Amino acid sequence: MRLGFAILYGLLPSSCVAARFQTAGKFDHFHPKFTSNPPMKLDDASYERITATPRDYTVVVLLTALEARFGCQLCRDFQPEWDVVGRSWVRGDKKGDSRLLLGTLDFADGRGTFQKLMLQTAPIMMLFPPTMGPNANPKSQAIRYDFTTGAQSAEQVNDWIIRHLPAGPRPPIYRPVNYVRLITVTTAILGLVSFFSVAAPYIIPIIQNRNLWAAISLITILLFTSGHMFNHIRKVPYVSGDGKGGISYFAGGFSSQFGLETQIVAAMYGTLSFATIALALKVPRMVDSKKQQIAVIVWGGVVFVMYSFLLSVFRVKNGGYPFHLPPF
Q: What whole-number distance in Å separates Cα of residue 81 and Cα of residue 86?
């Protein structure tokens, strides 16, 4: 009996050493693959081996479905960011001091793993902490990353990985220079500069035209004072029935209005504005006195008729208003 215990105690150190060498061998086996093509591609067999216990390293695996036939748009959108994370870690930790491995398991290569884990959606990211060594995690269960808010950036994923790692290297995210985008932006800027250099003699007089800005300002004022924003906020109807088989163009009261009513009011204000501008600016400049007299009568009549119509509309909105102006 004592001999059996002695043999057992003698074999325990050797078994521990063997497990340690087996774990170290796994990391040394996968790390060159990770550094050569980050993040490394996995299949069912390599996934089982890299995530098997015991392990003295951290491994993060992205389970995804990149082929178009699977219809996972989120997988395809996130894959470039995941590649950026992998290349950043290889660039900042080439010797593997952090003892971190990053891998990708596509559904086409790991259908058995998906079935074993009973996964119905993708992508899913799982972090497996070390189970032995000074940084061992007593809970060997994988930690999942949440993709419920959509595709994540490389910076967000990298911060999540760092939070679950022990003290060690913390490589920042490195994004390679996008020369195609740089050339495109440079070409577009040079094209715009060339266009404005050639078109400036024609565009600047238009931009500096006071009449143009006066017209834009007047149209904007008429648009908003007539109730345009009110219609968009309240989603008012364009017209409404009057209950007698006809159409009502104006809504009674000051707390409601119709879409056509806004356009009519804007047209009235616009006509009154242009008539007033003509009387104040255009008519005094006329050389012929007879034409000037006719213009005064015409524009004065326009102001009178439109103001009469405006008062009639105001009486529709406010039934208690006692005044009116012929002919309306």
A: 9
The pair of structure tokens assigned to 290 is: 């007879």
Closest to 253 (Cα-Cα) out of 267, 236, 232: 236
- Write the pLDDT tens digit of every residue in 58-100: 999 999 999 999 999 999 999 999 999 999 999 999 888 899 9
Q: List all residues 6 or more positions away from 292 whose beta carbon is below 8 Å from its beta carbon.
A: 283, 284, 286
Which residue, 131, 117, 125, is CA-closest to 58? 131
Q: Residues of 86-125 as b/e, b for ≥16 C-beta within 10 angstroms?
A: bbbbbeebeebebbbbbbbbbbebbeebbeeeeeeebbbb
Q: Rounded to 10 degrees, what is the CA torsion of 258, 262, 263, 266?
A: 170
CB atoms within 10 A of CB 283: 18
Nearest to 50 by CA among 86, 81, 25, 84: 25
Task: Tell me the torsion sign for CA atoms 32, 37, 38, 41.
Answer: negative
- Are 112 and 203 contacting, i.e. CB atoms less than 8 angstroms apart? no
pLDDT per residue over 293-313, tens digit each? Answer: 999 999 999 999 999 998 888
Q: Residue 319, class by beta-carbon neighbours within 10 Å (0-12 exposed, 13-18 middle, 19+ buried)?
A: exposed
Report the candidate in 124, 127, 117 with the shortest Cα–Cα distance to residue 148.
Answer: 124
Q: Determine the straight-line distance between the first and last CA of the chain, rounded to whole angstroms.
A: 122
